Amino acid sequence: MSPVLVASDLDRTLIYSSAALALTMPDARAPRLLCVEVHESRPLSYMTDTAAALLTDLGDRAVFVPTTTRTRKQYQRINLPGPAPTYAICANGGHLLVDGVADPEWHAAVVARLAEECAPLEEVREHLAATADPVWLRKHRVAEDLFAYLVVERELLPEEWVKELAVWAENRGWTVSLQGRKIYAVPKPLTKSAAVREVARRTGAALTLAAGDSLLDADLLLAADRGWRPGHGELADADWTAPGITALPERGVLAGERILREFLKEARQA
To answer: pTM for the whole thing?
Structure first.
């Protein structure tokens, strides 16, 4: 039988920082949480105990592919429950990991495509450095020599600046995404969906399921046979939907649990 491929975004889709948990219920009814990421000796990301059990079951029934904008180093500090994924997608599709090791041929093909189809990273990096205001800018980073992002004080960030940046980037073949305290500038050809299609080709998957919450996940959801987005994030704020996409009402860490329930239900039926 052809396997089911499950490609899911991680941050604010399956795993959540303490600030993103959205525990709105009474304290006594809050779900038990499992820490799945530690950074600099501090717990950083969580999922519910129930979600951990669902992911473990899913890993035994489907080809589960973590699909993230994180760099390889950032991804590798996550300790997800269940079987270790054979494939993982990092840097928004810039790196395809096979048993934890980046596929050099895939990365070389991505780099070649970026050079042909969009403005160079250095031009974007210089524009960000020149226009970002130190009043709200906290960090300026380049990820894997593929894209750039800023860490900002969200309350002080002018909405107009983000809109102007998006127009500037669009004209140069780049996309802008605001996720929590981070503003990403990513080349349009650098997509999660392209890497997921490659994994589907290698595994012979007949059914692809996906989930994500941000603008950078839209192409991933559109490439899947079925997709889910939580009730929070850029896509929810824009009321974004498409055929085959289910907009869930759950927000925060309980959305991650619901997404895994939906994945598992589809995998069992397949």
So the answer is: 0.94
